[in-house]
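User: I'll paste a sequence; please echo it back and then give the predicted structure.

Assistant: Echoing your sequence first, then the prediction.
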Amino acid sequence: MKKFLLLVLFFILFIPNVHAATANISVRNNRSVAVIGQVITTTVTVSSSSNLGSWEFDLKYDSTRLTLTSSSFGGTHIVDVASSGTQKSKSYTFTFIAKKSGTASIYVGSSLVYAFDETRLTVTNGSSSVKIMTQAELEASYSSNNYLKTLEVQNHTITPVFNKSTLEYFLELENGIETVVIKGTVDDSKSSLTGTGEVDLITGDNLFNIVVTAQNGNIRTYKLNISVKELDPILVSINNEEYNLVRKIEDDCPTYFVKQDLEYNDEIVDSCYNESTDFTLVLLKKDTDINYYIYNDDYKLYKELVFNRMIFYYIDKDLKVGKNFIEKEIEINGSFINAYTYKYDNNYSLFYGMNIETGEENIYLYDKLEDTIQRYFDSEIIKKDNIINKYFILLIVLSIISSILVGISVFMLIQSKKIKKNITKIKESRQKS
C-alpha cells in the first residue's frame, strides 16, 4: 500500500502546478511547559480550503529532550490519502515523554500536499516548542504576586480608597440591608481569588476575608469590615436586669420549633414556636450571653436537656419524692438544674420536665453513669430501697436479739452472784456451829 502511495505521489510530481492553492500543517501541544516525566501530546493537522487528495511529511523533534512513545499513524513519516473527495483536513497524534530540561522543538520537516484534483498545494509547515523543567525549576518559576487589583462593594463606597497594599477596609450601612455584592479582581491572572460574590449580612458587625493565592501558593488576606446599624434596642426587664430582645434570629430554631413572626410592641420580630408545648421562644441578649426564653407575658429561660433523640425542657418545681432524696444542683449536658438526688447513690437524680416533642410533663429519673433518662419511678430505685429496707429490718432484729442476749447475760451474772453469796453464808454458818 505504501509503495502504491509513493508511486501516486511520484507521478503527481510531474503534473504542472497551475493553481496557487495552499495547505497548512499545524503542530499543537497539549502543554507549553512540562515537568520531566510528564506526558506531552502533540496533534499535527493537515488542512486546506481545497479538497485534499494526498500528502506526505516528516515530523521532527528534539530527541535529546523528548522520547516518542506512540503515534496514531505508527511513526513520524506520514504518507496518506484522503478518504473522500470532500475531505479538507486530517489529524494525527503523537505522544512524548519529557526527559531533560530545556526547550524542545517539535516541527514538520519536508512535506508535499496535493489537492483532490492532483494540483500541488503550497504548504506552510508548522512548529511548536515545549519548555521542560524539573519540579524545582517549575516551582521557582511560579509567580509570587498575591495582590488585588481592585476591590469594591457594589453600589457602596468603602474606606479608605482601595490600594493593593492596604489590607483592611470599612463600610457602614443602614439597618435593613441584608446582602451586598463584594467585587474584586487579581493583579496577576495566575493567582486565584476567594471571598467575593453576594454575602449575607447581620445587624451589627460583619467581617469578610478576601483571599488572594499566588501561583506559588503564597496567600494575602484583605479584610472587609461591614457594619449594619442597629435599630434602637428593645429592652426587656427580668429580675431587675435589662436584656436586649434580638429582632432577627439568624440560625435555625431549636429542634421541634419553627420560626415565625411575632408582633411585639408594634414591631415584627422573629420567634420560634412549638405547637405541642405551645411554647413561643424569643432570643434575649445580655452582654455577650444570648439565650432563648419562653415568652408568655413574662420570660423564663429555656433550658434544653438532650438525650439521644429526646429533648426535654426543664421545669423548676418542688417535688414530693420522699425522704430518700436530697435537693441538690446537678449538671446535665452543660446545664445546671435543681434536682433531687438519691441519698444512697448520687448517680440517680429526679427532676421535673416536659418532652418537647409531645408536650407531656413528668418526673424523670436521670442516670449519671449511663447519661440516660426515663420516667420515674425506676425499678432500680425500688430495688435499692427494698435492699435497704431488708437491711434495716435485719438490723432491728439483730438489735433486739442482741438486747435479749445482753439481758440474759446480765440476769445470769446477777443470779450467779446471788448463788455464790448464799453458798458463802451457808459455809460461814456451818463453821460457827
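The first strand starts at residue 22 and ends at 29. Confidence is low (pLDDT under 50) at residues 1-19.
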